[in-house]
## 1
Amino acid sequence: MKVKFCGAAREVTGSCHLLTLNNGYKILLDCGLYQGGDDDGRAGNGNPLTAFNEKWLFDPREIDCLILSHAHIDHTGRVPQLVGDGFRGKIYATHATRDLCAIMLLDSAKIQESDAAYFNRKHRKENEPEKKPLYTLEDVQQVMRQFASFNYEQWFHVHENVRVLYRDAGHILGSATVTLEIKEDGKTTHFGFTGDIGRPNRPILGDPLPMPELDYLICESTYGDREHESPPAEVGHFINIIRHTCEEKGGKVIIPAFSVGRTQEIVYMLDKLQSAGELPHIPVYVDSPLSVNATEVYVNHPECFDSDLHRYMTEDDNPFGFNGLVYIRDTEASKQLNNSPEPCIIISASGMMNAGRIRHHVANNIEYERNTILIVGYCSPGTLGGILRAGVKSIFLFGKKLEVKADIETMDSFSAHGDRVEMLEMIANQKQSVKKVWLTHGTLDRQEKWREYLMENGFGNVGIPSLGEEEIL
């Protein structure tokens, strides 16, 4: 058996790992899109991420099955391309992951089509062939026909000698760790993939659960170098930002948030603050069609909720809706928010500000001192969010230089990724059994610190693979 690292190797995006059994059976773990880009969020010919997304480190036609950990696009965003390039096997996921993929991949396909049209309109040279999208809406239709979904804690076979267990990862709705029990050549091997590890004691979802004891483990490392702000301090910090901006300065709080997970958590927190009478009397807008659709999927999967949310729902049957909250799908209604002088909260995608309506809200509000842009999660260094996190004084957006006069606040405590202490707690039971751990889904500097922390806490063989690296087990 051998493992090949085909994405998210020393990067926080593009998750994709290939297991090849001794009999030649090939299992792909995740198939994510590399995300990031230039000022306009469009990737040109020289963009290394584009080069990655357009090429495979394997033949899609040879893959026998695909096992998804969760629905985020950096873990699923190349699945339609995989299918378009010849993959015809089963796509395995939890029920909630399948439902989220149905809306997220369609949204991604629309972006791929519009990006290709934008490039052809703005950058294509005369006599040069037109740029084609990575995949289309029609490709997504075929993807959904190949899904097979399962509950947590239910072993299922993907091959006569391979069975799989999904266990709650606590990251987003339907997210799961993946345990493979592989029987070949007279022995049994347990191979694990954490996907993205969530956080204990967070709103909405159950806590991440330890995996069965493993022989080998691929582990994420997004926040392997730090510890997050605690929840009690988080709520106080959050409401103070809102009051200072909206009540004292009469401004807007602009919150870039991923459509799946982060948006629902923020809305739920606002719902509880409103119920407790602590939220100022200001309108709250969720301005993202995908966020609206994703929230509807959340409502349809209460089996993923934690006990606190179930108890809250006995008093408030809609934890994602309250007086003053408005969900916006319409483009014109979105534009009107930028013309309105009223203090308000605007939650919009994408979380890294590299695409979506949030870029228009940032462009229209960043030059006013009364406003606040509240960043509530990790942003890749090359994205607009990463640039603002770095403390720049000006940005270029939509062809204009804009001075950064609004307050820029960050709250990593909202992150859906566990910090180093939380991740260690989730995988601590592997110390005695695991022969090797590979760190993926993280920048190299954080991975090196995460490896050091793991080895200080009893782990022995910890590797940091590079893209395309292959290892025989």
## 2
Amino acid sequence: MKQIVAFDFDGTITNRDTLLEFIKFAKGKTAFYLGFLLHLPWLLAMKCHLYPNWKTKQMIFSYFFKGVNLDEFDAVCYRFFMERGENLLYQDAVKQIKQHLYRGDEIVVISASIDNWVKPFAESLGINQVLGTQLELSGTGHLTGRFATANCYGEEKVKRLLQLYPDRTQYRLVVYGDSRGDKELLAFSDESYYKQFNR
């Protein structure tokens, strides 16, 4: 039976939240801290479960990147990987991915992060499938600041996996995760590893 291996990205393959690191990289630390200060009421409401996580995330993303041309955005994503990638990766996670690939397992990264900056990391590791939160584009190819898909978090991770691999009887599923957002996917697996590389 084919074995599918699903890796979360932030905190599982990487050693920190890449959304925050990407904003700092793209906009600079001063703009980053100012932007988060302006959104502090919504961030606090989110922490208190009074405002949805995905709405807060979309609001912050829109503040920093609404109106940016997609090609320019993708170029920054690639530079982010080239300049910051090595320091962001758990080397034990990299080794585990290589072992799965050597055994012939099919690997997919399933992340709440925007897939534009996850893909360069995945491709460098030999992973071709990335399921992440996708961005909405205007007719002119610019970011609207909104998400084109549901935030790939929690139950959405299971839904997206089943869209890619619908017949659950035809494969064995191994999942690596590290947070509340991976709970449903970990429970859906045949074999799961929680915080395997963050100990």
